Amino acid sequence: MEKLGLNELVFIGLGLYDEKDLSVRGIEELKDADTIFAEFYTSLMPGFSIQKLEAMIGKQVNVISRRVLEEEDGKQLFEATKKGKTVLLVQGDPMIATTHVDLMISAKKQGIKTLVIHGASVVSAVRGISGLQNYKFGKSVTIPFFEEGFVSETPYIVIKENKERGLHTMCYLDIQANKKKYLTINTALKTLLELEKQKKEQVITKKTMVVGVASAGSPKPVVKAGYIKDVIKFDFGAPPHTLVVVGKLHFMEAEALYVLGDAPKEVLEIAE
């Protein structure tokens, strides 16, 4: 008799904050799994505990490195599916990162059944909690660490293109999980101002409206909207942090930033 779950790979989103963010369906799949892997290099879950998760599901969770998924092309996961149902736990939503999409494609090509159980994503959480409308966002971008005096111009270019179209820009902040380094909103804003000094196109100034969000999905998220000159001095607390550079505002978005994000009252006057 063929073992149920053989040659099956299940991607499960962990959500944003702790193990309680898992869906009921996700927990059911974990309890039924033969092998469970988890990766934690793409984001940060401040309240998450592997020990608590293992106690919840009665199974061992194997943490794997970025190398296993990218340099080894997920071979360890695919081998595990030959012995039974295999789960890969991913922070946020599993299919936001291109690495996981690539893994699913590879699994399908090898005849491995796949299933995705979605989790809360920072993409929807930040947009929702700030009150900015989802359809008014343009291309997203990652702001990297300022390494040895060099920083990529890509964030500046993307923000410029979005602003020309009146769209908001969601900026993911660089993470080096193996070094426990997490770029903050304050440092990211300094980087953008430094890029403005180099480019001199008046895309990012101290009067540019931005929104900083910290600890989205936690019991105490932080949302602060305002001009860069003010937000850059704000204490957002511990990461993870996300930054939004604001484009043209609908009047309801402006009111949301004023009420929910403590933006200055003049934000109501620049809305359309």
TrEMBL record:
Enzyme Commission numbers on file: 2.1.1.98
Pathway: Protein modification; peptidyl-diphthamide biosynthesis
Keyword Methyltransferase appears in the UniProt entry: yes
A molecular function (GO) term: diphthine synthase activity
Residue span(s) of domain Tetrapyrrole methylase: 9-192
Catalytic activity reported: 2-[(3S)-amino-3-carboxypropyl]-L-histidyl-[translation elongation factor 2] + 3 S-adenosyl-L-methionine = diphthine-[translation elongation factor 2] + 3 S-adenosyl-L-homocysteine + 3 H(+)
SUPFAM superfamilies: Tetrapyrrole methylase
Transmembrane segments: none
Protein's GO biological process: methylation; protein histidyl modification to diphthamide
Binding sites annotated in the UniProt record for S-adenosyl-L-methionine: L16, D93, I96, S121, V122, L173, A216, H241
EC class name: transferase
Record keywords: Methyltransferase, S-adenosyl-L-methionine, Transferase
Function: S-adenosyl-L-methionine-dependent methyltransferase that catalyzes the trimethylation of the amino group of the modified target histidine residue in translation elongation factor 2 (EF-2), to form an intermediate called diphthine. The three successive methylation reactions represent the second step of diphthamide biosynthesis.
Similarity comment: family membership: Belongs to the diphthine synthase family.
Summary of subunit composition and partner proteins: Homodimer.
UniProt cross-references to NCBIfam families, sorted A to Z: dph5
Protein name (record): Diphthine synthase
Source organism of the structure: miscellaneous Crenarchaeota group-1 archaeon SG8-32-1
